[in-house]
Amino acid sequence: MSREYDVVVIGGGPGGYESAIRAAQLGLKVACIEKRIHNGKPSLGGTCLNVGCIPSKALLDSSHRYHDTKHSLAVHGISTGDVAIDIGTMQARKDQVVNQLTGGVAQLLKGNGIDWLQGTGKLLPGKQVEFVAHDGATEVVQATKAVILAAGSEPINIPVAPLVDDIVVDSTGALAFTAVPKRLGVIGAGVIGLELGSVWGRLGAEVTVLEALDTFLPMLDKISSKEAFKILTKQGLNIQLGAKVTGSSVNNGVVTVSYTDKDGDKTAEFDKLIVAVGRRPVSRNLLAESTGVEVDQRGFVVVDNQCRTSVEGVWAIGDLVRGPMLAHKAMEEGMMVAELIAGHYAQVNYDTIIGVIYTHPEIAWVGKSEDVAKAENIDVKTGMFPFQVNGRALAANDTQGLVKFVADNKTDRLLGMTVIGPNAGDIVHQGMIALEFASSVEDLQLMTFAHPTLSEVVHEAALSVDGRAIHAIQRKRK
Predict the structure, then answer these.
(1) Which of 14, 223, 280, 339 has the highest local Cβ count within 10 Å?
(2) Torsion sign over Cα 291, 293, 295, 301
(3) What is the pTM of this model?
């Protein structure tokens, strides 16, 4: 007789383990299947904790501290002498952070009475799951209430730049360099490409980013995109837009990349090449053909706005389904689904999901950009304020960037917020909370922001929407 659970979760990443924990908190008997082996051991936490969000942020922080120490402390009167980076120690710290967090997830599952099944899972008809353990043992696990598909995503590989040992790598390989490459190429100027390029650029690599699109960070409006491009290129990232890679080859440890841009065919040579052109859902081998679960042409599992698939009792969340591939989006979907399975009501507000790029300064946004709002024929008004005149930013010698608000000109309702600057990923949450409560710009204008803080830029940007910013000369509104 097969093992029975109320809920079987396939995938132990952020969405999977959070849905498992919440379902267990609601009194359901839960199993979580996870296949990942990291550094020779079974590991929970998915891409995010093992080879994504967490290790990349550990390296970003280390590289920023190194760069800051080498280039920015003298203005504070701090002398450091020769500054060196030990890549081995930096990588060991990254691994320690990963191990602590993934180990913590394992303890959370255990503490909530969840069975962690170490191996692969495939959905069968009738809410059954074929579980294959790492030793090859196979059994069929029965879910009496629901199966949650949370298998995540994987890097997209492209034929024109096939991976080669540790020379041409994807995002996972880029986290494991043992030395700083002299010349680093990055294909893709998206979130992953910019973050990884920033890590190694701060440590001394000459970084060239090849982006096929003619626009930079198209999720931002034109003003914010231009500001981000200016800051990152000033830091030394050589970002080539409209550069379509046509081929690559490796000879004697040197990567030659062929690409075309508006000026014609070109080549560039690198010591390392990172392919960061996006991710795709891990839906292959996840579903038996007879399950009836609908999958679209790109491999995404088709779901409604509460993550139900086309088969009753089968749900899918996170990178497997529509929407941004973000850990926090997967987490909230996982908890929503657990609540729904238990008979409660829950709904994710997809209009207030934050995006963050962890360069320095950080780039963050929530809600509609000015360009999107205008494309939807909304009569908008906007306000913007720079960090360069903020007292707290000046005191910290961290003044790049701005805060921008977009609002409905007729109703004054806040529509969106963009932040480029120090701690942007935290500051943007102020806009997210305002959007969740359907705030007007006036609501923000009437609030008292502590002085001196970076958040005063938020207040000034809100005031600027109506030409009322105090610490900038405002043009009179007609």
Answers:
(1) 14
(2) negative
(3) 0.96
Residues 262 and 214 grouped into a single domain = yes
Query: Residue 188 in contact with residue 161, Cβ under 8 Å?
Result: no
Domain CATH code at residue 211: 3.50.50.60
Residues 178 and 141 in one domain: no
Cβ count near 29 (within 10 Å): 18
463 annotated as belonging to a binding site for a ligand: no
Which of the residues are catalytic? Answer: 451
Q: What Rg value do the Cα atoms of the chain yield, rounded?
A: 24
**Which of 277, 300, 325 represents a domain boundary (last residue)?**
277
Question: Is 147 flagged in the annotation as binding?
Answer: no
Question: What values do phi and psi take at 277, rounded to 5?
Answer: -100, 15
- Based on the fold, state whether residues 367 and 321 are members of the same structural domain: no
Within this chain, do residues 24 and 146 fall inside the same structural domain, yes or no? Answer: yes
Residues 6+ apart with CB under 8 A from 323: 329, 350, 353
10 Å CB burial of residue 472 (0-12, 13-18, 19+) is middle
Please indicate, yes or no, if residue 474 is contained in any of the structural domains: no
136 marked as binding residue: no
Residue 179: which domain range? 168-277
78 among annotated binding-site residues = no
130 vs 125: CA distance, rounded Å: 10
> What is the per-residue pLDDT across 361-375, written as a single tens digit (0 to 9) for each?
999 999 999 999 999
Q: Do 178 and 39 touch, CB atoms closer than 8 A? A: no
Domain count along the chain:
3
Sign of CA dihedral 209, 172, 429, 424: negative
